[in-house]
């Protein structure tokens, strides 16, 4: 796809190159959902993609999280585990942040340098030039 992708709040599926696992992901692309993130939750099934984003904090969080910093091409720049009450360093090349429960990214086999894909509902129809069914 040429140009910058316009992300929308919603759900999608995350896949890592060379891995079979499909991980459900929530996309937080507007101010409210990005600001709220995982606050007030006791856990998450899958992951949350914050976009645009290059740094996170875990103040008022109830659980430890894995944080993957992603560049424009959804390549993993860095992965960190953060306990509650921490402030993460900004990553200058990061354009997106993927959050999941601590230990989840290791189970998924995510490593620095891995290339990810995000499959949103209706992406196949859009690629073919058709209107998504939910419009």
Query: Which structural class is indicated by helix and strand composition?
Result: alpha+beta
Mean pLDDT: 86
Form type: globular
**How many DSSP H or I helices?**
3
Beta percentage is 25-35%
Number of strands: 7
Q: Which H/E pattern describes the elements?
A: EEHEEEEHEH
Strand order of the largest sheet: 5-4-6-3-2-1-7
Tell me which oligomeric state these chains represent. Answer: single chain
Unreliable stretches covering 5 or more consecutive residues: 124-135
Largest sheet: 7 strands, mixed
How much helical structure, as a percent, in the residues? 10-25%
Characterise this structure.
The chain is of the alpha+beta class and 135 residues long. It contains 3 helices and 7 strands, in the order ββαββββαβα. Strands 5-4-6-3-2-1-7 form a 7-stranded mixed sheet. A hairpin with a 5-residue loop joins β4 and β5. The longest helix is centred in the N-terminal third of the chain and has 6 residues. It is globular. The protein starts with 9 loop residues before the first strand and ends in a 7-residue tail after the last helix. The C terminus is likely disordered.
Features:
alpha+beta; 3 helices; single chain
């Amino acid at each position: 796809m040429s140009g910058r992708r316009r992300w929308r709040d919603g759900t999608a599926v995350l896949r890592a190159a060379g891995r079979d696992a499909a991980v459900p992901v929530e996309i937080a692309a507007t101010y409210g959902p990005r600001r709220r993130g995982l606050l007030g939750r006791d856990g998450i099934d899958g992951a949350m993609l914050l976009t645009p984003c290059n740094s996170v904090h875990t103040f008022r969080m109830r659980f430890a999280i894995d944080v993957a910093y992603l560049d424009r091409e959804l390549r993993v720049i860095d992965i960190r585990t953060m306990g509650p009450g921490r402030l993460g360093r900004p990553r200058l090349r990061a354009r997106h942040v993927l959050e999941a429960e601590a230990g989840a990214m290791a189970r998924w086999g995510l490593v620095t340098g891995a290339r990810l894909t995000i499959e949103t509902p209706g992406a196949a129809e859009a690629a073919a030039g058709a209107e998504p069914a939910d419009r």
